[in-house]
Amino acid sequence: MSSPVFQASSPAHGTGRRKSQFTYRHLSLLASYSTSCPLRVIAHIDLDAFYAQCEMLRLGIAEDQPLAVQQWQGLIAVNYPARTFGIGRHCTVTDAKKLCPKLIAQHVATWKEGDEKWAYHDDAASHIGTHKVSLDPYRLQSRKILALIKECLPSNMQKVEKASVDEVFIDLSAQIHSILLQRFPELTNPPPYDDPTEKLPLPPVTALDWQADALVDLEDAEAEADDPDWDDVAILIGSEIVRDIRAQIRRTLGYTCSAGIAGNKMLSKLGSGYKKPNQQTVIRNRAVQHFLSDMKFTKIRNLGGKLGEQVVSTFNTEAIKELLPVTVEQMKLKLGDDTGVWLYNTVRGIDPSEVNSRTQIKSMLSAKSFRPSINNQEQAVKWLRIFAADIFSRLVEEGVLENKRRPKTINLHHRGQGGQTRSRQSSIPQGRTLDEATLFELAKNLFSQISQEGKVWPCANLSMSVGGFEDGITGNRGIGAFLLKGDEVRESRGASRDPSVGPSTTHERPEKKRRVDNPGIQRFFPKKESSSGGDVEGTFDDDLVDTGKTQIRTKEESPNRTGSGPKPITDYFKVCTRCDARLEDAEALQSHLDWHLAKDLQEEERGRQTFASHNSSVPRGQRTAAASSSSSKKPTRGSSSSSKLEHGQSKLKFG
Questions:
Q1: Which of 391, 151, 102, 350 is nearest to 251 (CA)?
Q2: Nearest CA-CA partner of 175 in 151, 157, 152
Q3: Would you say residue 530 has pLDDT above 60?
Q4: What distances in angstroms separate CA 85 from CA 89, 101, 163, one per listed residue?
Q5: What three-state secondary structure class fits 452?
């Protein structure tokens, strides 16, 4: 996909400036998705009231009809027409219908006790004890939208991160770099004196057409008269790309979405929520300070929870503008070094985090809290069957049938009425096809182990999860294939080869994977057992890296941390043990460690080349002499050094 042809909205004329503030090096960094590039452009696309839109499209309801998605007696999504009546997710269904008698309250799909497939049930709200919520309809639509977004992007420039079921980040930098070179051929010229630090020429335009975008104003209104620089042009191109993506989603699937376009992830996410629904907001670099000045920092990602509460209590404010006068040293003193520096940069709109295109999930969970509690094995087994069906349907979407990805472990958690929790874990057999029946049998076996301890009834909560996902291996042969001869071998190889792949005359060795799930010194210490088990209702703790048998916490302790002191930022981020870089989660940490590995291999290769060039520079005669000299120094079998007896040895005489 390419953006529309760029056109200046006013004629070009000079203003006295001859050079851009950006360099040729900055331009080249744009093509490599560098997080330090000042021309970088990140988009955040957020579906408008997504669950509500899914139900409106499924039921064929008009867009101006008030609708809310119901879960039991509460609301989990409210469309924008319903919001005009004052209805929010905090309302009960009864209160919402008092505010808007014409409100359509559609209950989510549910698994019914004993059924093998989720469905929409009219009486689900009154059967909380025998039904379990299913969000599969929304996950399916989310995958369609993500696939369409990728179709709108060049196949070799897709850096897309699925942030949740209804939002994605897109790093548009490389695509924008390509479009810049097409629209402005002068940028393809080498820098003067071949010096990449030379400034770029100014863009040959004096005004930009932002069309219907919500453009954040500059703090100084008179600055709008200044000629644009390359960061303005880059973000304009980004807005064109995003506008096309949003229009394509609307045309093809019928969904509206809002978007934010800015220089980093944090700002783009704030931008997508700035003007809703069905609008996009552009935050130019020059407008960042003005955009953040009247905002509460608790709206910023990672500052809405415990860390945000800590900052509010420390500085007695949640306004960004009241934190700006606080020096970085003061923040470090009150919050710790890492947290202080991170917060100092964040309230100024600085966010170097990378868009992580690895959107694969790490774990799946299916759980049910029983009200009232269940009291016998038959009821529990019915729910285990539902859990197995629920998780397997999501595994199919992950490619388990094609052996693309599959989990290694299964966990079952039980909570009694008194609050005591128990859990059991088992490995999933890797040598055969994984199906729903296998998951069900494994779950029953784990429940049997828990039951043997006694006192399992009444049961207040059951949950089943799978984790330790890994990429599947295709093309493996059984042992019988190694006992074949001639034509049988060729037929066996042909049958095991992926039919979508053409014939090949070479056999590629599988790429070696560096083990990064347990990179630190912790691998030399045994796992500490927890006496209380654990309830994993909800999502897993991202601070844990699953290794199949044990869970090892990534580095998150500061050297100067004390029990009573403030929590460091590493309690909220992963920290690389090699360079102390901050990563958002365990998956980002793995990607970062892969980068270290690539650098190590590069340095190793350079070392080999240097050694080879040094060897080739030595004259042949000298190399031969050196080799002879070296070999002459090696002790021979009959030499005195080799015949010297060690303690406890004796010399044998042979006649």
A1: 151
A2: 157
A3: no
A4: 13, 10, 30
A5: coil
Nearest to 408 by CA among 361, 365, 468: 468
d(CA 42, CA 354): 10
Instruction: Tell me the C-alpha distance between 534 and 512, whole Å.
Output: 35
Name every residue whose Cβ is closer than 8 Å to that of residue 641 and which is 6 or more positions away in sequence: 635
Using omega within 30 degrees of 0 as the cis cutoff, is the peptide bond preceding 372 cis? yes
The percentage of the chain sitting over the pLDDT mark of 70, rounded to a whole number, equals 70
- Tell me: the pLDDT tens digits for 38-68? 999 999 999 999 999 999 999 999 999 999 9
CB 99 within 8 A of CB 340: no
Structure tokens at 356: 């992580």
Element (DSSP H or E) covering residue 480: none
d(Cα 161, Cα 167) in Å, to the nearest integer? 9
**Size of the chain in residues:** 655
Residues contacting residue 226 through CB under 8 Å, at least 6 positions apart? 15
Phi-psi region at 334: left, alpha or beta (left = phi > 0; alpha = psi -120 to 50): alpha
The beta-carbon contacts of 387-390 under 8 Å, at least 24 apart in sequence, are: 387/439, 387/443, 387/462, 387/463, 387/464, 388/436, 388/437, 388/439, 388/440, 388/443, 388/464, 389/111, 389/116, 389/117, 389/436, 390/111, 390/118, 390/132, 390/134, 390/136, 390/366
Peptide bond between residue 191 and the one before it cis (omega within 30 degrees of 0): no
Number of Cβ within a 10 Å radius of residue 142 = 20
CA pair distance 582, 287, nearest whole angstrom? 27
